[in-house]
Amino acid sequence: QVQLVESGGGLVQAGGSLRLSCAASGRTFSGYPMAWFRQAPGEEREFVAVIKRTSGTTDYADSVKGRFTISRDNAKNTVYLQMNSLKPEDTAVYYCAARAYYRDSYYSTDAYDYWGQGTQVTVSS
Q1: Is the dihedral of CA 37, 74, 100, 23 positive or negative?
Q2: Rounded to whole angstroms, what are the CA distances from 104 to 36, 44, 48, 98, 110?
Q3: What is the C-alpha separation between 125 and 106, in angstroms, rounded?
């Protein structure tokens, strides 16, 4: 059974930092992209960051470029999201995502098959 478990969310002041973790179990994802999405109340789940393969290419939503960094530790089957210079508009539930098979897209929810339960990030002003 595949499980993705996010942790590291919380309340932080604007300008602060958090590091989110997503620990996967049930299979290895080292050969697959993993991604972070977020969803604010009343909004669609939106792409945040992706790492396309082990130590591979990364990409970010324009809104987080220069502030967020995605990385992975394949020995731990874990993906991270380092979030710096946080803004109130970053407030959302953050989800990690993984896929079971190849497809040629990265930036939509349809590109992924497995999702974590989400972790709340709240940025106060």
Answers
A1: negative
A2: 17, 21, 17, 14, 11
A3: 32
Amino acid sitting at position 23: A
Q: Are 48 and 68 in contact (CB under 8 A)?
A: yes
Assigned token pair, 16: 């602060």
Query: Going along the chain, which residue ranges are E strands?
Result: 3-7, 10-13, 18-25, 34-39, 46-51, 58-60, 68-73, 78-83, 92-98, 114-115, 119-124
d(CA 122, CA 43): 15
55 has pLDDT over 70: no
pLDDT, position 54: 61
